[in-house]
Amino acid sequence: MDLVLQLLFTGIGIGAVYALVALGFVLIFRATNVVNFAQGEFSMVAAYLMVVFSVDLGWPYWLSFLIALGGMALLGVIFNLGVYYPLRHRTFLPVIIATIGASILLSNSVLAIYGPQPQVLQGWFDTPGIQLGPVYLDSQYLLIIAVTIALVFFNYWFFEKTLLGKKLQATSQDKEMASLLGISVSTMIMITFIYSAVLGGLAGLLVAPVLFVSIQMGSTIALKAFAATIIGGFGDVAGAIIGGLALGVIETFGAAYISVPYKDGFAFLVLVAFLIFRPQGIFGERVAEKA
Amino acid sequence: MPLLEIRNLVVRYGEIEALRGITIAVEAGQVVTLLGANGAGKSTTLRAISGLAKPTSGEILFDGQSIAGLGPEAIVRLGISHVPEGRRVFPGLTVKENIMLGASNRKASSAQISREADAMFDLFPDIRAFADALGWTLSGGQLQMVAVARGLMAKPRLLLLDEPSLGLAPVIVQAVFRIISQIRKDTTVLLVEQNARMGLSVADHGFVLETGRIVLGGKPDELWGNEAIAAAYLGGHAKASA
After folding, report:
1. How many beta carbons lie within 10 A of that of residue A120, not counting itself?
2. At how many degrees (to 10) do helices A237-257 and A217-232 cross?
3. Spatial CA neighbour of A222 closest among A106, A121, A103
4. Closest-CA residue in chain A for B114?
5. In a designed cystine with A24, which of A118, A196, A285, B162 is the match (CB 3.0 to 4.6 A)?
6. What are the tens digits of pLDDT across the range A39-48?
7. How confident is the model over A218-247, as pLDDT tens digits?
8. Closest Cβ–Cβ partner in B52, B101, B136 for A181
9. Measured between CB atoms, does B99 come within 8 Å of chain A?
């Protein structure tokens, strides 16, 4: 039982990272009808920005964290203007290919600067963790879970309680009608890209001390997050979060009880099972409401 | 000077010439109805005015200012509100949220917009009970009320209404037209209708479109008086679609 609780804690911690990246996927998908294959690279770039400011330059951790997030907001703007905006009147295919291209560009740019060896990043806290009864709570995982909970509430408040959130929803549901009402569609999409880049970046910053900071970290996280969105029900915000958490828990238990080397495999096994037996995902029915 | 003046407007979609040089004028305070069969170019005319369709040539003047080629976001800010065909109520937002978003063309606080949306239910009492219902749960008549209410939230000087009676039961059509006769007290309306009888019943002036051309224009009783037109567009057709 103690082990189960311990695994549950770790699983939710890693699942929260997938949930944040998955949320970025879903928000961009809803706003533009395109899957952003560079979403994982946002996490990777943010982690390297953190290495630049916190490790290489030795700036305070919190300041480096804020600068990295600011950098991600800027990357969201550049990404929108450089990758999405020129192709916005085309079909989804050129846009998807452009995001794949951007993903390759980002990872290889970082590779050219930092080389292939992984970097190490300290966690936010000096204390490694606390013992709570039988369960050891790692401080970085606690931070990840706390930030994710806070973001879920922020996301709910932002999209459900503010007029700007409603304008973003309206834009994702019917762009032409939104423009007829005077909603600036390009501004709404810009906001979506900024928010998604910051979300992806935040996931990278939070998970970096747990993993290594490497070129591949983006694609690994993105694949899991993508699987999470399908498990949750593609295009559904709650589904992305539940799917991400579920995936984190499943792969942690799979690694502990079945096989460690196949840890990454469990996520995709679950994905395949969902695609066969419940392709619409957990919250699948609600996707129809968006159309 | 008319509030809206269209001169020799041509709109092409690729090879297809949807409008072949139409000229119409809408005076402030009037209700003007555009009649015509499916594909005659009625919706294209409204789409060109609101900026959804790019004019190939010709002029569109609103209050004397050329608006041809401006985007829809800019045009609605000038005071032209377009309630498009098919209502286009946001399915995942509530009725009140839909109505509130109608004020996106002007600067106002959310509290102010919320109060104005509540006041809108006085004009549309039938949808007041559905204020918190999601768009996709409504019936066709309710959707039309929401769409018109949302269009009015822009405080337009000119309201473009595209086929408000389409697909509605006769009793609902009458309710919609009662609202149009209310609206006309404050707002100029350009109405597109297939239902000629209802369309002309509220109009000061009517135009008949046929394959992208204006073939007839005049006061409603003059249009009724034209026998060939009455037979082709008003008599038989009105019966069929009413």
Report:
1. 10
2. 110
3. A103
4. A163
5. A196
6. 999 999 999 9
7. 988 899 999 999 998 887 888 899 999 999
8. B101
9. no
From A178, A180, A289, residue closest to B91, measured CB to CB? A289
A179–B77: do the CB atoms touch at under 8 Å? no
Kindly identify which residue of chain A lies nearest to residue B85, measuring between CA atoms: A177
Confidence category of residue A289, pLDDT binned at 50, 70, 90: very low
Q: Is the pLDDT of residue A288 over 60?
A: no
Continuous segment of H or E residues that includes residue A269:
helix A263-277
Asked if B52 lies within 8 A of A180 by C-beta distance, the reply is yes
Cα dihedral A83, A286, A176, B175, rounded to 10, equals -170
Q: Do B93 and A182 touch (CB under 8 A)?
A: no
The CA distance from B159 to B163, in Å, is 13
Report ipTM (2 d.p.). Answer: 0.90
Q: Does A187 touch chain B (CB under 8 A)?
A: no
Query: CB B93 to CB A170 under 8 A?
Result: yes
Residues 6+ apart with CB under 8 A from A66: none
Instruction: Flag whether residue B104 sits within 8 Å of chain A, measured between CB atoms.
Output: yes
Q: In which order are the strands placed within the sheet that holds B16-26?
A: B16-26, B4-13, B57-62, B65-66
Q: Which residues of chain B have pLDDT under 70?
A: 228-242
Any idea where the domains of chain B sit in the sequence? 4-85+152-241
Distance from CA of A280 to the nearest CA of B (A): 18
CB pairs under 8 A between A and B: 70
CA distance A178 to A31: 12
Kindly report, residue by residue over B214-225, the tens digit of the pLDDT: 988 999 888 887
Task: Give residue limits of the domains in chain A.
Answer: 2-214
d(CA B157, CA A46): 49
Strands B188-193 and B31-35: parallel
CATH topology classification for B4-85+152-241: Rossmann fold (3.40.50)
A181 and B CB contact within 8 Å: yes
Backbone angles phi, psi at A188, to 5 degrees: -60, -40
Task: Identify the residue whose tokens are 């009725």.
Answer: B95
pLDDT at A50: 95
The reported pLDDT for the residue numbered B235 is 53
Q: Does B72 touch chain A (CB under 8 A)?
A: yes
pLDDT in tens, B144-198: 999 999 999 999 999 999 999 988 888 889 988 999 998 988 899 999 998 888 8
Determine the pLDDT at residue B232: 67
Chain B residue with Cα closest to A179: B73
Query: What average pLDDT score do residues A54-74 get?
Result: 95
Query: What is chain A's mean pLDDT, rounded?
Result: 90
CA-nearest residue to B110 within chain A is A163
